[in-house]
Specification:
Blueprint lengths: L15 H4 L1 H14 L2 H29 L9 H9 L4 H25 L9 H25 L7 H13 L4 H25 L13 H35 L8 H9 L4 H25 L3
Helix pairs in contact: 2-5, 3-4, 3-5, 3-11, 4-5, 4-6, 5-6, 8-9, 9-10, 9-11, 10-11
Length: about 290
């Protein structure tokens, strides 16, 4: 007698809740990190580091405007300038930690949508992701300089990157779009300056009246200076796309150099450079008063 066949067991159902477990776990870790003292420390160290970098850029640009041997440089050039000073490598190590902190702070907020005190909308999260990635790359450059392997950057790198992108299918359209986005970001810097909306992210109520006035003035002039630089960078990127010529693309140093060679160039460069120095001062104050 043959055994009675047993019915097939139904296939095991997949527990869909398990599929999202890694994502939920990562988000939970991000939430814990965002509420930790380490998160706040990294944010404030990062804002201070950003101020130091812009301060070097501004001082070199002011010296160039005055004909005192300065030069137009960008963030990478500022790091190299710091490394060339006495005890420069030690200073650069401290600055690199701050840059890493700034990148971690912005990327974490972009991922989870909030910090310890405030939340971010979609625009803020996208802006935070772009800024975080940019400062992560700057941290890598700082590590390369510390290790003695140089570290590129500047308008030369902008030329290479633009030249490579122009060769892609639809490359000119992509480069032009990036240029327009940078122009839009610059105009948004101007909007923040005129509306003083940057004050909303800081604890201005804890400042004295004079401190609040200084903070606001530095923020207004700093954001206006960044508007000029960003608009110039975006404009020349659009020109590079239209002319199919990567040599027309410029970085931060190239934008400052364009100002220096314009009619009344030293005056224009000096005004923008003082504005960038204001942004450095604003960043230093924001390191203390920012709502993270």
């Amino acid at each position: 007698m043959y055994p009675t066949p047993t019915p097939e067991e139904p296939p095991m159902s997949v527990d869909m809740s398990l599929a999202g477990a890694p994502a939920r776990s990562a988000k939970a870790r991000g939430e814990r990190f965002a509420r930790s003292d380490t998160f706040e420390w990294l944010a404030r160290a990062g804002l201070a580091a950003r101020g130091a970098v812009y301060g070097i850029i501004a001082i070199l640009a002011i010296k160039l405007a005055l004909g005192d041997g300065g030069k137009a440089t960008n963030q990478q050039g500022a790091l190299k300038t710091i490394a060339a000073q006495p005890f420069g490598k030690a200073l650069l190590i401290v600055l690199a930690i701050g840059l890493l902190g700034y990148a971690a702070w912005r990327l974490t907020r972009a991922a989870i949508g909030h910090g310890r005190e405030t939340t971010d909308d979609v625009k803020g999260r996208i802006s935070g992701a772009v800024s975080g990635l940019g400062y992560a790359a700057l941290f890598v450059t700082a590590v390369q300089i510390i290790a003695g392997s140089g570290g590129g950057g500047g308008s030369g790198q902008a030329d290479k990157a633009t030249g490579g992108a122009l060769g892609w299918p639809g490359g000119p359209w992509l480069v032009g779009l990036v240029g327009l986005i940078i122009v839009a970001a610059g105009l948004d810097e101007g909007r923040r300056a005129l509306t003083r909306s940057f004050c909303e992210k800081s604890r201005t109520e804890r400042m004295s009246r004079r401190m609040r006035q200084a903070f606001t003035a530095a923020g207004v002039f700093g954001h206006l200076a960044r508007m000029v630089v960003f608009v110039l960078m975006g404009y020349f990127l659009v020109r590079a796309a239209i002319a199919f010529d990567p040599d027309k693309a410029v970085g931060l140093d190239g934008a400052l150099a364009k100002l220096a060679h314009a009619p009344y160039g030293p005056v224009l460069l000096g005004i923008v450079a003082v504005g960038l120095l204001g942004f450095a001062a604003y960043s230093a104050l924001d390191a203390r008063y920012r709502q993270v």
